[in-house]
Write the structure tokens for this entry.
Amino acid sequence: MILETSVAKHPILRVENLQKVFRVKAGRGSRHVHAVNGVTFSLAKGSVLAVVGESGSGKSTLIRLIAHLIPRTSGRIWLGDEEVPLKLGRAQLVRYRRRVQMIFQDPFGALNPYYPISYQLERPLSNLGQLRTRLERFREIVRVLEEVGLSPAQDYLPKRPHELSGGQRQRVVIARALIVSPEVVLADEPTSMLDVSIRMSILNLLDRLRQEHQLSYVFVTHDLASARYLSDHIMVMYAGQAVEGGLTDAVIDQAAHPYTRLLISAVPEPSREIPIANPEVSGEPPDLSRLPQGCPFHLRCPQAMERCRQDNPRPVSLDDEHWVACHLYG
Amino acid sequence: MSQQELLTVEGLSVTYYGPPDVEAVHEASFDVRRGEIFGLAGESGCGKTTLIAALTRLLPDNGAVTAGRIMFAGADWLKLPPSEVDAWRWRKISLVSQSAMNSLNPVISVGEQIVDAILAHQPQTSKREAWDRARALLRMVEVDPKHVHSYAHELSGGMRQRAMIAMALALEPDLVVMDEPTTALDVVVQAQIIHQVRTLQEQLGFSVIFVTHDMSLLLSIADRIAIMYAGEIVEVGSRERLNREAAHPYTRGLIESFPSVFERKSRVGIPGAPPSMVTPPPGCRFHLRCPARLTMCDTVVPEERVLDAAGHRVRCHLYDSVEAIGQNGRN
């Protein structure tokens, strides 16, 4: 039985043993890249799960699987009480997209440069077919623009993306996700491409919208500090696997996995006595097409034992809402 | 200029000729001391990359220094003829840029590029010596010396950036300018490289200008930090001083823009967005976003004040009354 990681009582979203293997051509044959390797979690209504990890950890692939942007290799997904089948028909996909929306990292690439903002926001409304008349749709577009802080909305409707700043563009991307009143929002590094001084305003906007609409987020980030800021639960990924998770405060303040500790020690934190620790590990994450046997972190782990080279550890519970996949804990 | 200072920049302005003409750097002044890490912080478009281009004499053809001067290692750096600048490159000043992938030549092995640099600047070196040095340099930045024969695409991002640092140090320069050297890297690799630079600096004694938008990083590693906003340097101070009490409202806002891993505290960042450099705002360039704005900030350009004997300087009307210290503190 798989441990129910990041337990939620009445989950709005639940995924079990999610896997994604990409086949990549290599010379005459092909390689199998194990991007996501058996990830399980659940997300409570109105809460935020931060998925943190370095590049190549599989965090972006994970939410693309959930968003149905790419098909999963195996594993199960539930939205509310309904299981989401591996393949969705057109009508099913429309229904799914109404409930699950995505916010992309790059506000420059996520908007079509050719069309005005009004068009970009009307598209999801007409595609996902909720509001019949143009007037209804127009009212909704104005309401959402004001809600994301682009006010007065009339000023923004005729503008094209290049006429807006990066922060304003990301607000449009957020408005576009919200306009269909989704229940789950998947956010892929929503602030990492923005100017530093406006990142907080976007995080604060996401937080306010969550509270006002009882939204649930899966928030993918490489930045532990913004994960702490926005999330109530956190899941740490390494080489396609979830290695630790639970309540955000517990995972950061009582980090158990050697990889989580490494990540935290490497974050620049001026208030700490040693603002950036000298990492006691060398090397870099493994090649996902040639994963080592055993724990994926054992090659770099300062506490690796014989067992770590043999068996991939299963998640064990440390506390009510804190788990870790590491042989140090039994 | 005292012995301590390696580089002094006075009233430097840089314009790109358009149309429209854009003054990307306006009257920047600061100095870099021997053996220190000098941080330069600012958001995209604030002029930090232009300032670095002027410092390294690598401005594009449509850009020119319109005012000010730079004293570097005892020379009037902007007046040196190009041939002499070329001779100083790598030997006195070198540059590590953000994307190591694009900076390394993809069709020449990493070792050959280091050897080229050594032979071009020290022609008396034998080829064999140069290759030995290339291996030693890679070893110094903890890249396996077997990679002298590797090409850029065969190395990971972290290894490429280490190789760039090895190259930048090949001729033991006095000043290494690092433009967002770790921005594209993961946080663990960033920490490894930062410690590497610190160790090498202690051994070799060079100065570093470290350019980044990451204020948390500078407040963790730099000795002194300059903050740039809309083409101007608005504050210069030691890391300790800025950590304890940053003076300029923009600096404070920038520090506030980085949440902490260790506490969950509501933060607001800075309202609005940086201004266009084509038509910078009148008065103080930050006044439109400033939470401490006075009436005069809308129209009157603030002068720089020196706040203490250690040279903590700020350009903000909130400190207009400290003029007396200002004149004593300036040397």
